[in-house]
Amino acid sequence: EPEVTQTPSHQVTQMGQEVILRCVPISNHLYFYWYRQILGQKVEFLVSFYNNEISEKSEIFDDQFSVERPDGSNFTLKIRSTKLEDSAMYFCASSGEAGSGQPQHFGDGTRLSIL
Amino acid sequence: AQSVTQPDIHITVSEGASLELRCNYSYGATPYLFWYVQSPGQGLQLLLKYFSGDTLVQGIKGFEAEFKRSQSSFNLRKPSVHWSDAAEYFCAVATSGTYKYIFGTGTRLKVLA
C-alpha cells in the first residue's frame, strides 16, 4: 500500500537556526498537510496546500513557517528561526480530495528537538 | 467552534476483554469522523471512518465504531483486545469545505497479559 514518507525521522537543531522537514506524499494525491504534536498534547493542524498554494492555515502557522512543493514529489515545511517551543513531532499527510471526508494518510513523523 | 473530546486519557484492559473508547464532538452539522491509532514512535494509522449512511462502521484490526447523532458520539469498540492493540487512539473530526482535521487529546490503551 502506498504511504507517506518523511525525512529525517529525528532532527536536532540549535535555537535560531533554520530547519527544513521533508515529506513525500502518496503519488496521486493532490492535497498536502502538516500537523504537529507537542509531547503529551493533541495533534494540531498547521497548514494545508493544494495547487501550489496554501489553502488553509492555523494561527500556529505564523511568518516563521513556510511550505513548498519544490518538485513533483516532495513537500517541505521550513521553520526560519526555530524556537524552543517548536520542539514537537511534525506529521505530513496527504489526501486525494479535501473537504469531502476522504481520509488523510499520515507519515511516521519527524521529531524536531530544539536545543 | 468545532471540538473533539476523548474523556478517557488512559484505559487499561486485560487481553481478551472488550474495549470501548469514547469520543464526543461538537459541530452543528454531521461531520466526517475518523479514528486513528498511533503506536509508539510511529505515525497515525487510519482505523476507520464515517461519512454517511450506516452508523456502524467496520475498520481494520477488528475495530468498529458507531455514530450516534443524538449523543454527538463516535465510540470505538473491539470485542476482544489483543496485546498488540496497546497504543494511543485518536478521534478526529473534519467538516465539509475545510481541509483540517481536529483531533481529540487521545486515549492511551494499556493491555494486561
Notes on the structure:
The complex is a heterodimer of chains A (115) and B (113). By secondary structure, chain A is an all-beta fold. Chain A contains no helices and 11 strands. Chain A has strands at residues 5-7, 10-13, 19-24, 31-37, 43-50, 53-57, 65-68, 75-79, 88-95, 105-106, 110-114. In chain A, strands 2, 4, 5, 6, 9, 10 and 11 form a 7-stranded mixed β-sheet that branches. In chain A, strand 7 and strand 8 form a beta hairpin. Chain B is an all-beta fold. In chain B, 0% of the residues lie in helices and 51% in strands. Chain B contains no helices and 12 strands. Chain B has strands at 3-5, 10-14, 19-21, 24-26, 32-38, 44-50, 56-58, 64-68, 73-78, 87-94, 102-103, 107-112. In chain B, the strands form 3 sheets. In chain B, strands 2, 5, 6, 10, 11 and 12 form a 6-stranded mixed β-sheet that branches. In chain B, strands 3-9-8-7 form a 4-stranded antiparallel β-sheet, with no helix packed on it. In chain B, strands 1-4 form a two-stranded antiparallel sheet. In chain B, a hairpin with a 4-residue loop joins strand 8 (64-68) and strand 9. The termini of chain B are far apart. The model of chain B has no long low-confidence stretch (mean pLDDT 92).
